[in-house]
Predict the structure.
Amino acid sequence: MTEIWQGFIKAIELIVSLDPEVMEIAGRSLGISVTSTVLAALICIPLGSLIHFHRFRGKRVLVNIIQAFFSIPTVSVGLFVFVLFSQAGPMGGIGIMFTPTVMVIGQMILITPILLGLTISAFSGVDKAILDTAISLGANNFQTMIVVLREARYAVVAAIVMGFGRAISEVGLALMVGGNIRGFTRVITTAISLETSRGELELAIALGVILISLTLIINIALNRIQQR
């Protein structure tokens, strides 16, 4: 117990002193997760609006499949990305395995069902009278989509926040396709796993405190958005 307490005190010292290694790992985690979330949102919001505003056969089945992938294991996505971009894979010639780029792609795939499904749900929650009013006033399809998006903006932002929380907290995908390379692909979750296995509790606890703090901030932001 004394060793754990001493490790916690040392971890606080590392954070307060802005230890370069701790800041580097935390910054890389934020950079990769923010990039993947923004790129996924740029794809999922327009795609979600297309699915919502168009009627086609199998639409309900498609939405159910998207929602089923909300809790897909990160290692499953990691395996898919690894097979896709490994030397023997169909995209192996690009040569991006064990780089931050492939980690961004993997996280995008991981959070796409969440962003897409919640975006569709956000649009579905908008009062139909607003949609009818926009159409009656002569709005075209794009203008109607913008009107509905403005009404659902808080729910859409909540979906983006949830996607970011899922991205920054995953570990299996980052280990499989990033390789946990020091100074290059090591992020908070993989560093915690490695340092704990090595018995280096100070750095592991410091990164754990940062990750928990980010999670709390995300949850507080999500609750504020939902209240709006």
Remarks:
- DSSP finds eleven helices and no strands in the chain.
- Residues 2-227 form a domain with the MetI-like fold fold (CATH 1.10.3720.10).
